[in-house]
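Incident log, support desk, overnight shift.

02:14 A customer reports that sequence design results differ from what the structure should imply. Their input is reproduced verbatim below. On-call engineer (initials T.W.) acknowledged and began investigating.
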């Protein structure tokens, strides 16, 4: 049986490991919560922002020393990045948890906190609820 050549092997895409993806999601969450851009975290770790992107997507594995460095720069203990990852075949958390870890949720929360008036907050909630009720169509 003939083995595929090197070029063929390199062109095959390998799906990221679930644990790498979950840790990557935690890295992204910690970075966003601490207000660091990918560029700032990368600079603090003396690597490229593209490498941070790869870690966050789970397409590149971290060394223990790099994980420790990222934990120190974001202010989270290394153990936090691995919490609830005791069962590798468990799918990612529910839709709400995944949303809360997103940059959109972070931006929305920051904007929400700038609204000091309760009636303004209620108006924003009303608009979002109306949009969601109509399946995302216009109000």
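02:41 Re-run completed on a clean worker. Output:
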């Amino acid at each position: 049986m003939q083995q595929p050549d090197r070029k063929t092997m390199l062109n095959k895409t390998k799906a990221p490991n679930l644990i790498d993806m979950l840790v990557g999601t935690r890295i992204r969450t910690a970075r966003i919560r601490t207000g660091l851009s990918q560029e700032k975290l990368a600079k603090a770790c003396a690597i490229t922002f593209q490498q941070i992107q790869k870690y966050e997507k789970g397409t590149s594995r971290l060394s223990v020393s790099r994980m420790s460095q990222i934990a120190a720069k974001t202010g989270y203990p290394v153990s936090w990045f691995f919490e609830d990852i005791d069962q590798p075949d468990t799918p990612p958390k529910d839709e709400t948890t995944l949303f809360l870890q997103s940059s959109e949720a972070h931006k929305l929360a920051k904007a929400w906190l700038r609204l000091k008036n309760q009636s303004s907050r209620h108006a924003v909630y009303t608009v979002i609820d109306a949009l969601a009720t109509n399946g995302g169509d216009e109000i």
